[in-house]
Amino acid sequence: MPDGFSLMFLSVIVIARDGNWAPSNGVIYATYLATVLCHATVATLSSKIMGKLQTVFVVMNFIVIIATVIALPIGARHHRNSAHFIFAQTGNLTTWPTGWTFMLSWLSPIWTIGAFDSCVHLSEEATNPNKAVPFGILTSIGSCWFFGFIIMIVLAATMNPDLEAITGTSFGQPMAQIYYDAVGKNGTMALMCLLFITQFLMGISIVVAASRQTWAFSRDGALPFSAFFRPISQRFGYIPLRAIWGCASLAVVLGLLTLIAPAAAQALFSLAVAGNNLAWGIPIFARVVWGQHKFVPGPFYTGDRFSVPLAWTAILFLVFGTLLAMFPVGGPSPTPESMNYTVVITAAVWIGALTYYYADARKWFTGPKITIADEQLTEEQQVAIREKGLEVVMVEKEEGGGSKDV
Fold first, then answer.
1. Is 330 helix (H, G, I), strand (E, B) or coil?
2. Which helix (H) or strand (E) holds 275?
3. CA–CA separation, 288 vs 216, rounded Å?
4. Could you give the CA distance from residue 120 to residue 133 in angstroms, rounded to a whole number?
5. Strand 232-233's sheet: what is its strand order?
6. Percent of the chain with pLDDT over 90
7. How far are the Cα atoms of 72, 144, 180, 285 from residue 67, in angstroms, in the given order?
8. Per-residue pLDDT averaged across 216-238, rounded?
9. Residue 377 has what pLDDT?
10. Integer Cα distance of 208 and 247 in angstroms
11. What is the DSSP letter of 348?
12. Burial of 231 (C-beta count, 10 Å sphere; 0-12/13-18/19+)
C-alpha cells in the first residue's frame, strides 16, 4: 500500500505540471520511506481509537467510489462508449493469446479481494470473533465484488477507447488519465487526492494487520527473533510495538528493490498473492483430506452438504491464482526486464521456510500457544485444550510498565 500511495501522490504533482515532470526512482523511494514511517507512527499512537479509525477508512472508500461513479459519467457525457464496448469488446496489449490474456486479467480481482484476511489477523482483538470474522470476510469480498463491478462499468463507459494511450500515460497512473480525459485537470487532481488519501488510510490498516500477524507468529515462537517481537507495550495502549516497527523496518528495506531492480520489486509484491494463497489453502486442504473427522463446526457453518464442495472449490481457485501470479504479464518471451520473477522469489521463500523448519524449528515448535492463565479458562475449555494437545503459557509481566508478555 505505501508504494501505491507514493505513485498516486506523485502523479498529482505530474498532473499539476501538465506531464512535464517525471519522478526519479530516488524521489519515489523517498516518498515511500516517508509514507512507511507515517503509517508506523499512526499505528503506534492511535491504538485506542483504531477501531473508530477503521470506520473512517471505510467511509473514505465509499466517498471515493461515489465521487468516481458520479463525476466520470457527468464529465464524459458527450463521449460515452457503447454497451458493446463496455460488456463485449476485448483488448489485448500483450503477446499472449487473447484467451490466456483474459485469464491473466483475473489477477486484478484476485488482488482486489486479497485484503479480506485482515479480518483474521485482527480476530484476537474482535468481539465474538467466531461470528464477526466470517461476517467480515464475506462483507469484504462481497463489497469488493458489488462496488467493483459498478466501477468497472463506469470506467469502461467513460474511458478513452485507445487503451495504449491510457496505459502509456505520462501521468504514470492509468486511473489519472481516465479521470483527466473525463473531468479535466482540476477535477482529476481533486479525485486523485481523494484516491491517494484513501490509499494512505488503507496502508495504515495493512500495517496494523501485518503487525498483529507478526506478533501472533512470534507469540507461538514461529519466527526468528520471536522473543524480541513478542512483548506487548503497555505504555502505548497494549499494542505489539516492536512488531509494528519491525514490519515497517522490513518494508523500508524491501522498498530499496525499486532502486535496484524494479522487476524484482514487482515480483516481491506479487509474492503476496502466492504466499497468501498457500497460507489459506494448506489448512483447507489438510482439513478435507486428513482432518474432516476431527472438524468441529463453529457458529458460522455452511452445512455438511456444502462445506466440503466449497472447500475443494476454494483449493482449486487458490491453485489457479497462484499459477497466474507466476506468469509474465507481457507475453511468453519476456526480457530480463519484463520477466516475472515471482516464481523465483516464491520458491526461495518456501524452500527457505521448509529448510528452517526441518533443520531447527521442528525440534522445538509444537504449534500455537494459548497465553492465558489457567484460572481464566472454564473446565470445558481446559478439557478441550488438553484433548487437542495445545500448550498453555502462563502470563509473564515485566517490571516497570514498559512491556508485557501476553
1. coil
2. helix 262-289
3. 25
4. 6
5. 232-233, 403-405, 396-397
6. 26
7. 8, 16, 14, 42
8. 85
9. 64
10. 9
11. H
12. buried
Q: How far apart are the C-alpha atoms of 273 and 346, rounded to whole Å? A: 10
Span 83-135, pLDDT tens digits: 999 998 888 888 999 889 888 888 887 777 766 777 776 676 667 778 888 88
Per the rule left: phi > 0, alpha: psi between -120 and 50, beta: everything else, 223 is beta
Quote the cell numbers at residue 252.
523500508
Contacts 24+ apart (CB under 8 A), 344-352: 344/267, 345/264, 345/267, 345/268, 345/271, 346/271, 346/274, 346/275, 349/271, 349/275, 350/278
Has residue 251 got a pLDDT over 50?
A: yes
DSSP 292: G
1 against 147, higher pLDDT: 147
Q: What is the DSSP string of 364-389?
A: T--S-EEES-GGGS-HHHHHHHHHHT
Whole-number average pLDDT of the chain: 83
The single-letter code of the amino acid at 215 is W
- In residues, how long is the chain? 406
Distance (Å, rounded) from C-alpha 61 to C-alpha 26?
29
Cell 470506467 belongs to: 155
Taking only the tens place, the pLDDT of each residue in 263-295 is: 766 777 777 788 888 888 999 999 999 888 878
Of 406, 374, 53, which Cα lies nearest the Cα of 234?
A: 406
Q: b vs e for 359-380, b when ≥16 Cβ sit within 10 Å of the residue's Cβ?
A: eebeeeeeeeeebeeeeeeeee
Three-state secondary structure call for residue 396 = strand
Residue 348 CA to residue 345 CA, distance in Å, equals: 5
Residue 138 confidence class, pLDDT cut points 50, 70, 90: confident
Which is more confident, 178 or 22? 178
pLDDT-derived band at 25 (thresholds 50, 70, 90) equals: confident
Q: What is the pTM of this model?
A: 0.80
> How would you label 244-262 residue by residue, b for 16+ Cβ within 10 Å and e otherwise?
bbbbbeebbebbebbeeee
